[in-house]
TrEMBL record:
Single GO cellular component term: cytosol
NCBIfam families: T6A_YeaZ
Top-level EC class: hydrolase
Entry's Gene Ontology BP terms: tRNA threonylcarbamoyladenosine modification
Pfam families membership: TsaD
A Gene Ontology molecular function term of the record: metalloendopeptidase activity
Keywords: Hydrolase
CDD domains linked: ASKHA_NBD_TsaB (cd24032)
InterPro entries: ATPase_NBD (IPR043129), Gcp-like_dom (IPR000905), T6A_TsaB (IPR022496)
Residue ranges of every copy of the Gcp-like domain listed in the record: 33-181
Name of protein: O-sialoglycoprotein endopeptidase
Amino acid sequence: MLLAIDTSSYVLSCALAQEDKLISEWTVQRRLTHSEQLIPHIDEMMKVSGVLRKDIKYIAISNGPGSFTGLRIGLASAKMMAYIWDIPLIAVDTLQALAYNLKSAQAFILPLIDAQRNNVYASLYSSFKDLWQVWENKADSIDNIINEAVKHGGPIIATGEAADLYKDKLISAGIQIAPFHMRCCRAGSVASAAFEKIKNKQFENPLQILPNYIRRSEAEVQWEKKHNQK
């Protein structure tokens, strides 16, 4: 049994899964306080699903990019559980997990996460056969991302919270928008991606793993500017 967690955005999602079988998934889009809600959600989901702690053999966490605070909360919780329970920890790229929402779409998948100030975290995946990454994760303006994506032809389907935010621009460029239930970060997709890593024994050291922010937070940038001026 695998416990998967995603707190990379305002969405709080956790899931219990076995290979090729989703046991339970709780996904809430209410801008809840992850630090207060994550553990109670996991406890309640396990209780309702009849799953005991000893049944859980792996923990998977969405490791970024995404919300700086959300990533820290989710990763800290996953690291703690993996260490205390002495079970393997799997880190899943958030953009990859979003692409897994549309793994069988037979299209190019454009996962998008808001990075503020008309910028997004993005990658491009192909799902025409097996799901594979066309280009690496990057942080760039939404206009540059759209221009680069459409060079590959189509169809292209955008997913992720920023697909809502920049819906008009994407549609104007001929890019489709994923259905609403496939646009949010879902722990079930984190679990699906994690099982591929389990096959290859790609585990993380819970004492060493860090979030994949891609870039520094605005607060860090402003702090550095302020102190470099002195």
